[in-house]
Write a structure and sequence with these properties.
This protein is of the alpha/beta class and 218 residues long. Helices cover 55% and strands 14% of the residues.
């Protein structure tokens, strides 16, 4: 898998390159700012882009803007955006319109190297990876908003959180030590309680769940 990295901190950029190469990824370029990132994508046409949100010169959202541009011009390229803190608005903007081949993770996830590499592969293969802390904020805000999330059982909330992260029914079942049939029953109950359209497509359900949670939080 061919990867372009964009990170302005030299040590983290070099560390990312090392852990990716040790995991079998081919890092074809490592950029230090958003312009370098866009140039590297044009030059190499990678399978996956990993970029920090805050990049020079203003260190605000240049990385996110570059990611959105790449997503618009090259939807075949998977993108994972890294953030130092939970930024709900950034996550929702990145997911807007289509939830496949996209990831939003906090930088602290890199510490769990195996899980981080798995998330990258899932996104590159067409999946979604939304950081658990972002999901927790959305669910908490939705619950405080007095919406239908409060009607869910504790188990349904667990399943809902994993759904929002982009996890499949099979993965959720293994994590919660439940059969896939039981997970389907839980998801059906969630759809009914929240009034969501039933879909077997993992990407569509991620988008539906995130949009619901964001609306309920307002």
């Amino acid at each position: 898998m061919r990867v372009v990295i964009a990170e302005d901190e030299t040590l983290l950029r070099q560390g990312l390159r090392l852990l990716l190469e040790e995991g079998g990824f081919e890092v074809v370029a490592a950029a230090g700012d958003a312009d370098e990132l866009l140039g590297a994508v044009d030059a190499h046409g990678p399978d996956l882009v990993i970029t920090d949100i805050r990049m020079p010169p203003s260190h605000s959202d240049e990385g996110l803007r570059a990611a959105l541009r790449i997503r618009s011009e090259r939807p075949d390229i998977a993108i994972v955006v890294l953030s130092q803190y939970v930024q709900r608005r950034y996550a929702l903007e990145l997911l807007g319109g289509e939830a496949s081949r996209i990831g939003y993770l906090l930088k602290q996830r890199i510490a769990d190297v195996g899980a981080f590499r798995d998330d990258l592969r899932r996104v590159a293969e067409g999946g979604t990876a939304l950081d658990p802390e972002v999901v927790a904020v959305l669910i908490s805000r939705a619950g405080r908003g007095g919406g239908d999330v409060r009607r869910l059982t504790r188990r349904q909330r667990e399943v809902l959180a994993y759904m929002a992260e982009g996890r499949s029914n099979a993965w959720i079942g293994q994590r919660l030590v439940l059969t896939e049939k039981a997970i389907v029953q839980h998801t059906s109950g969630i759809y009914d309680a929240l009034g969501l359209p039933v879909t077997a497509d993992d990407h569509r359900r991620v988008l539906a769940v995130i949009r619901y949670l964001d609306g309920a939080a307002d």
